[in-house]
Structure formats: structure tokens, C-alpha cells
Amino acid sequence: MFDSRRYLRNILCNWGAFVTSIAIGFFLSPFLVRSLGDASYGYWSLVVTAVAYFGYFDLGIQSGVGHYVARHMADKDGGKLNDKINSALTVLLLVGLAVVVSCLGAAALFSRFFHVPADAVAPVRAAFLLMGLVTGMKFPFSVFQGLLVGAQRFDIVSAVSAGVKIANALCVVLAFRMGKGLVGLAVVAATTHLLEGIVLVFFARRAVPSLVFRPLHFRFPAFHELFLYGVFNFLLNVSAQFGAGFWAFILARKIDAAAVTYYSVGSEMLPYMAGIASAVTTPLLQAIIPMDVHADEASIRAMFLTGTRYLTALVFLVGLNLLLVGRDFLGQWMGEKFVADGPYGSSATVLALLTLANMAALSSAVAQQILFGRRKNKLFAGFIALESLCIAGLALALVPRYGMVGMAIATLVPMALWEGALVPLLAMRQAGAGLYEYLRHAILPNFLVTGLLYLSGRPLMRFAPHGGWAPIFACFTLVSVAYLIAAWFFLIAREHRVGLIAVGRRLAFGTAGAGTGG
Questions:
Q1: For residue 213, which phi and psi values (nearest 5 degrees)?
Q2: Inter-helix orientation angle 78-113/61-75, to 10°
Q3: Which residues contact 334 (CB under 8 A, 6 or more apart)?
């Protein structure tokens, strides 16, 4: 049975951590760009992107842990749960050690491949090694995070994540005040991630006290099940990271490291857009798995159609704001040079194109969770692999001629086609929904509302005052209010409006008053 109260609590906790992340990024991102400079920040982006590839060599085991914790807690099989957790811990300890050793050799190749200047080789190499250590530590700790996610303790995961992000931001500022630069940034990352892992271990042991953690308790049948589920997640993550990080490598090779900074500034807001969707859909997966265990087809279908409708509305709200106000926001936040038509092009154009790409892709986020919850991740992994190859091929063709804009277009077209169109078609079969029903109920109302608001808002933005934060936030507020009013009447179903009004009454007047008024 779907526990709506727990699901709401998990969403609110995820959003709390997400808002913390946004607030920190709002202040920290421009601080890093200005403190490091265009070239050094470009190298930092390259280091983080390159090392991130090592982070996906967990063979998908972390996602398997989260999946099977939820599944075995639903079917109350504690023995299998113990075997899977300990087998995963054994394997990921060895994988983490192998990744750290691999990064030792990769650090030297990195500086040569990207033609790092002689005076920057030492700090860049040290940063690479430290971030490799961070990645290696994450592997065994990810088991405990997966355990908490599978147990639907997003409150703990979110609280730990938010606390670590705050500590990391404060230490980063302190490190730069002490003149530590790129190496100091990496040292802070290593220290705070170690702290995060220790705290996760502590809370995981308390959340599921029946588990007995034995790192060398390896059971091949348990690992085999984790592997069969997770290997396609592994391929999916590698493909997705390849598609998401390829821009940094090709821009650095075809143009220079400063171009990476300009593109990075243009894409800086997109992880937050994805984070809003993730805050909603990550708890959703843990709710879908018990539905699949108990063959509750009606609930899965309702989850697919209604969830897609409302998640798409949320994503399109953010996308509309970025399309209308994003240029002014970037100029005020990062500096006017990034939105001017300089030697690398405008970061604002990159933001607009990538916003469209993410609006298309994130509208299928509920469909993706349906596929994962029903163990159809093999199909999804294949689609994302094809998408990544298309992004790479288009980028190689377009970047030499069109620069950053070519890279953004190379990202937009495959994401809109594969994630925006084809992934929902796969999920429809698993959810028992038809194409016409999906379009009419979930997608077309959002497109109509967002399109009309964009067409009416675009000319009005020309008359909006420019310069300073007050006009920007005023525009954000006006766009959001207009969208929410339209959503209330045209996107939210009548029965859900009644439910929201009832919740509002309870919050405003208390349970007794709400009951009397109803």
C-alpha cells in the first residue's frame, strides 16, 4: 500500500537538502570562479568530470542495494537482506581500493592530455589524486547510503547531505582565505566526504538494527542478484556520465580550458533543475517496488499518469523561469562577460538550449522510475547508451564550427528524442497506459500552459527593468505566480484541488477547524 505521508515526508526532506544545496551554490559558484580564475576553474571542472567516471565503476551495486533493501523489507526476508548488504560491502571495498590505485596512474596522463601548463601541473595533479581518493572512499560508504534509501529514511540521508554541504562550503571559503587554492579545495572535499561516510555508517546501523555488518561475508548468489540488477545501472551511469561530461573534454581539446568555464557557467543551474525532479522521484522508486512485489497494477498506472503530469508541471515551471529570466540572472550572478557575445559565445545561449534539453528529459523522470521499479532497467540503459553516442557524434561534428552553442545543440537533440519521447513509450507498457491517454492526461496540458505563458511573457520581459537583484527576483516571482495560477485551474485535477484546500485549512486553522469547515 502506498504510504502518502511517508512519501510526502521524504519529498520535503529531499527538498530541504536541495534548497540548502541551491543556497550554497548561489554563493559558492561565483566565489570559486573569481577566486580560481577562468583557466584554473576550467581545470577544476575537468578534474571533477574526469574523476567522476571512476565513480561509476561500482557495477551498479549501490542501486542494487537500494532496490533489494526495499524489496526484502517488503517480503520480510532478513537473511537475504543480510547476505546482499555484506556481499556488496566486500566487493565495493575492493573496487574502491582499485580506483584509488588507478587514479595514481591517471593523474600523470591527465596533465599531458589536456596540455596543462608547467606551473599548473603540480596543483592540478594533486587535486586529481585527492579527488580520486574521495571517489575511492565513496564506494564502501555508498552501501550504507543505499541501505538508508531502501529503508526510505530519506530524512537521514538529506540531513547528512545538507550538513556536509554546509561544512564543505565554510571550509572552502576558509581554505581560499588561507591561500590554499586548488589543492585546498580538493583537501576540503576529501575531508568532508570522509566525515559524511562515517555519519552514514552510524545512522545505517541504527536504522536497521537487525543487520549484522561483516565486510568479508561474501555470498556469490546474493552478489549475482545484485550484479544482474545493477550491471545495467552501471552501463546506464557510465553512458549518462559520458554524455554529461563529454562537453568538458571536447571543449578543452578543440578550444581551451577557459571555454570549459564559460560552458560550465551556462550549465551551472541545470543540476538544480534536475535536483528538483530527483527530490520527487527518488522516494517514488522505493514506493513503486512494493507495488511491483504485490502486483498492484492499478496503483502503478495511476502513479505513472498522475506523477508525470505533476512532475512535468514542476519541471516546466523551473524551465519557464530560466528561459525568461535566465540571461539576466547569469549576468548578475556570474558577471556580464559570461552573457556577452565574447570570443567563446554567450553562456546565456548555452543555458537556454540546455534548459530545453532538461525540460524534455525530466518530463520522463517518473517513467524512468517505473522502469527501474519493475526491473526493466536493461531497456533504459540501452537507450541512454545510444543517447550518449549521439551526443558525442553530434558534438564532434558541431563544436569545431559552432563552439559552445554546437555542444549545447548536440546535447539538446538526443535528450529530447530519447528521454523526452522514447523512454515514456517504454514505460507505458509497464504501466498499462496508452499513448493517447499519456499525451492527453500528462503532457499536452503542460505544453499548452507553458507555451502560452512563454509567448506572452517574452515580449513583456523587454519592458522589465534590468540591473540588480530586485528586478530579477521580481520577474521570477511574477512568472511563478502566473504559472501557478494557470496550473491551479488547468493542470491540477479537481479532486486534488479539493485535497490541497483541505490541507491548507488544516495548516491554517488546525485539525478541528478544518473538520468543521469541511
A1: -85, 115
A2: 170
A3: 29, 30, 33, 265, 268, 347
pLDDT digits (tens, 9 = 90+) for 393-439: 888 888 888 888 888 999 999 989 988 898 899 899 888 898 999 99
Of the chain, the end-to-end C-alpha distance in Å amounts to: 26
Residues constituting the chain: 518
Instruction: Report the half-sphere exposure of 132 (CA within 13 A, side-chain side).
Output: 20
How many CB atoms within 10 Å of residue 248? Answer: 24
Residue 100 grid cell: 584509488
Three-state secondary-structure class, residue 14: helix
Look up residue 399 and give its three cell numbers.
563544436
Q: Which residue, among 124, 100, 126, has the nearest Cα to 112 in the 3D structure?
A: 124
464: left (phi over 0), alpha (psi -120 to 50) or beta: beta
Q: Hey, what's the cell of 165?
A: 554541504
State the cell numbers at 60: 551498479
Who contacts 292 (Cβ-Cβ below 8 Å, separation ≥6)?
A: 300, 373, 374, 375
Chain centre distance of CA 377: 18
| Of 207, 144, 157, 198, nearest in space to 16 by CA | 157
Instruction: Evaluate whether 372 touches 287 at the Cβ level (below 8 Å).
Output: no
The torsion angles phi and psi of 433, rounded to 5 degrees, stand at -115, 150
- What is d(CA 48, CA 244) in angstroms, rounded to the nearest whole number? 12
Q: How far apart are CA 366 and CA 431, in angstroms?
A: 11
Task: Residue 373: name the closest of 447, 310, 294, 311 by CA.
Answer: 294
Q: Which of 352, 349, 323 is nearest to 454 (CA)?
A: 323
Res. 517: pLDDT tops 50: no
Q: How confident is the model at residue 445 (pLDDT cuts 50, 70, 90)?
A: very high
